[in-house]
Amino acid sequence: MAEQRIRIVGENILADDYYPLKKISYEQRRQDGSWQAQQREVYDSASGAAVMLYNRERRTVILTRQFRIGARLNGSDGFLLEATAGVLDDAPPAERAKLEACEETGYQIERLDPVMTLFVSPGSITERIHLFVAEYDPAKRCGPGGGKPEEGEDIEVLEMDFDDALALIDTGGIDDAKTVLLLLHLERRVLGRHEAS
Ligand SMILES: Nc1nc2c(ncn2[C@@H]2O[C@H](COP(=O)(O)OP(=O)(O)O[C@H]3O[C@H](CO)[C@@H](O)[C@H](O)[C@@H]3O)[C@@H](O)[C@H]2O)c(=O)[nH]1
Ligand SMILES: [Mg+2]
Q: Does the UniProt entry include the keyword Oxidoreductase (predicted)?
């Protein structure tokens, strides 16, 4: 067994409303062999799944725009352009991604391709996000999209030229991490880049 480097010694719940905010005490064995006591606040938020919908023939993607309070509190108006995403709520990631695509965008997805699973902000948040891409057919719809109004969701759905979306990364118009990553994945592995004429 690998030598133990971390001993978790305590957990204190600071707040427990929607998801718990915890203060974790642990001891870390430093590279010089000494043990050091540390404490960190961690938001134990749920993990999620996100999917970037694209259409190869039209060379388009589907983006959502909704209000995000975390961004608003840190320098943005909070209305971020994003790939569709949702918390897992015990569903397998691919199934959750398909359900959220229907609820939020109204498109019926048949096949999802997994991209990667990432920690979003591992120093302070437990969340992992499972990323997918999937082709959409503009004619295959499962509902109106827009999210669940009773949960406060008011989601705008935009079909955007893929190259325009890539250009928005460069100007900061798209600044949500999972969304940037999924667009760059599409560019690298699926759709390539068309140079502006
Ligand atoms: N009342 C209340 N409701 C909440 C709270 N936090 C979340 N919700 C409810 O939970 C729903 C979550 O919607 P989803 O579509 O399932 O999740 P998401 O907000 O899109 O989250 C996804 O994207 C996030 C941002 O990238 C990810 O952090 C998350 O893991 C997930 O992938 C929201 O509509 C909202 O009603 C809260 O603190 N209070
Ligand atoms: Mg969502």
A: no
- 48-190, which class in CATH? alpha beta
Q: Give the distance (Å) from ligand 2 centre to CA of residue 153.
A: 8
DSSP letters spanning 32-86: TS-EEEEEEEEE-PPPEEEEEEEETTTTEEEEEEEE-HHHHTTTS-SEEEE-EEE
pLDDT of residue 96: 98
Q: Kindly report the protein residue whose alpha carbon is nearest to atom 36 of ligand 1.
A: 151
Regions of the chain short of the pLDDT cut 50? none
Region(s) of the chain under CATH 3.90.79.10: 48-190
**Total number of residues shown for the chain:** 197
Residue having the nearest C-alpha atom to atom 22 of ligand 1: 86
